[in-house]
Amino acid sequence: MTSNSVLDRVEDTGPVDPPTVPPPSTDPGASRSRQLWRRVSGHLVLGLTALACIFPIYWLVATSLRRPDDVNSLSIIPWPLSLANFADAADAVDIPGLMANTFLIAAASTCGQLLIALLASYAFAVYDFRFKTLLYLAFVGTWLVPYQVTMLPNYVLLNQLGLINSLAGVVVPTLSSALAVLLLRQHMSSFPTELIEAARMDGRSSWSILWTVVVPNMRPALAALAILLFINSWNDYFWPAIVLQRSNDVLQLGLRSFMGTEGNQWGPMMALAGLACLPVFALYVVLQRHIVNAFVRSGLH
């Protein structure tokens, strides 16, 4: 069929009517039903997600509170309650010592990363110098390097410094965090430059401006970042297991004490794991208001 014959057929049939679009429903009852269904389905999904997140923690606590003979029971509610697993864990490992060492490592790593990230992000956000963008991209690019790539050089350097089998050896390689610099620099870039210029006109030094003007206005961001860094350091197992080869000085390595070739002692292990969650939970309760504000402002969820 030629193009002329197609045009002839179109002219014979006349103009083509545009497709008709059904008008939107104006029934208020149907609109309210759709909104109600969307709200119910959204809450149902959120509820199921929350249940899936909470249930493993509940099972950990429930197992730790069962009697030693009922540890493998599948009943949802642990009854009768017993603290025998906590007593067995306390007899097997030094719980206060493990808690203190773990808290010391997590606190030192968090404070070091916050301080270095604060100074670096302040320099990248406030000052103009040559190769600023290139240096920033190179620094942030280290965040993309897999941890397994830097693990061996860090271990060799710690061995040469004599820090293997020491708590300092766990802390030192973690003091610089590219993620922390990236997040703080984003917050400082949106900080009003008028305040910094006004402080300079008052004769304040850069060090004074940082601690009296910038830091007080960034407390929510610092609190959110602090708890993220603390949790990451508190839950880290792999690096302490490499550095502390011949001792169980932290909680995560202390859990290995209940794992053996003849079987695992699930009751004391769950009791010690439950105690390990308490400091992080307490820290979140204390800093909850700052964390929510920081996540809302930064768009993190």
What distance separates the N and C termini?
A: 60 Å
| Elements, N to C (H/E) | HHHHHHHHHHHHHEEHH
Compute the gyration radius: what is it?
A: 29 Å
Annotation, overall tally of beta strands: 2
User: Structural class per helix/strand content?
Assistant: mainly alpha
- Residue share in β-strands: under 5%
Molecular shape: flat
Overall pLDDT confidence:
84
Largest β-sheet summary: 2 strands, antiparallel
The main sheet orders its strands as 1-2
Which regions are unreliable across 5 or more consecutive residues at pLDDT < 50?
none
Helix content percent band: over 70%
Number of helices: 15
Membrane topology: Multi-pass membrane protein
Transmembrane segments: 40-61, 103-127, 134-157, 163-184, 209-231, 266-287
Region (Disordered): 1-32
Family: Belongs to the binding-protein-dependent transport system permease family.
Please tell me about this protein's structure.
The chain is mainly alpha-helical and 301 residues long. 70% of the residues lie in helices and 1% in strands. It has 15 helices and 2 strands. It has helices at 3-13, 28-64, 84-92, 95-126, 132-141, 147-161, 167-171, 178-189, 193-201, 206-217, 219-235, 238-243, 251-254, 266-286, 288-298, and strands spanning 259-260, 263-264. The protein has a two-stranded antiparallel sheet with strand order 1-2. Helix 3 (84-92) crosses helix 14 and helix 8 packs antiparallel against helix 11. The radius of gyration is 29 Å and the shape is flat. The mean pLDDT is 84. It is a multi-pass membrane protein.
